[in-house]
Design goal:
This protein has 178 residues and is mainly alpha-helical. Helices cover 75% and strands 0% of the residues. α2 runs antiparallel to α3 (39-48), α3 (39-48) packs parallel to α7 (150-177) and α4 runs antiparallel to α7.
């Protein structure tokens, strides 16, 4: 298998920038209709194909999100889905959670095995829940929505932000190993 360094020698300088821009564009075109920025899809491409060093991947993906987010926010604003109390509650929990998660990952849990544990701790319960629940059958009435207390919603947003902040840096390190 050809390594990214061998490709660099064969193609010369500047090829990674062109390939990275083309990949970012293609990923954005495919991911935006799904409602995501695509940064999580760009990360393995950068590390595996382009051979980007792991410390450079996280800032690049954060920049990708900064560029992609205004378009998504504009779309939500145009559809009347922004603002309100829910958005403020989610932001109040998620932002500190992301900062805490990335700090915890970098400062307290620097080992590469931590990523596997974090993924297992997040995905196993989620996968179990998805496997055990059944979708509503057509023609049956869905259950009424329940109100979630604001403190519980903030706590959930903090946990989601913390997991997201910690797994981005862990994923960069994990894919860099392979």
């Amino acid at each position: 298998m050809t390594s990214p360094r061998q490709c660099a020698r064969a193609l010369g300088t500047g090829w990674t920038e062109v390939v990275a821009l083309a990949a970012a564009f293609v990923i954005a075109v495919l991911a935006t209709p799904a409602g995501i920025s695509g940064a999580v899809l760009l990360l393995p491409f950068q590390v595996s194909v382009l051979g980007t060093p792991s410390p450079a991947v996280t800032p690049t993906n954060l920049l990708y999100n900064v560029v992609a987010t205004p378009g998504a926010l504009y779309r939500y604003w145009r559809q009347g889905q922004t603002g309100g109390r829910l958005a403020l509650v989610l932001i109040a929990g998620t932002l500190p959670g992301v900062i805490a998660g990335s700090t915890i990952r970098v400062e307290l849990l620097p080992g590469p095995r931590v990523f596997d544990l974090v993924v297992a701790a997040v995905l196993l319960p989620l996968g179990t829940w998805l496997a055990l629940t059944r979708p509503t059958r057509p023609g049956t009435e869905p259950r009424p929505a329940r109100a979630v207390p604001v403190p519980a919603l903030i706590l959930l947003a903090v946990v989601v932000g913390c997991v997201g902040g910690s797994t981005v840096s862990a994923a960069a390190r994990s894919w860099h190993r392979s």
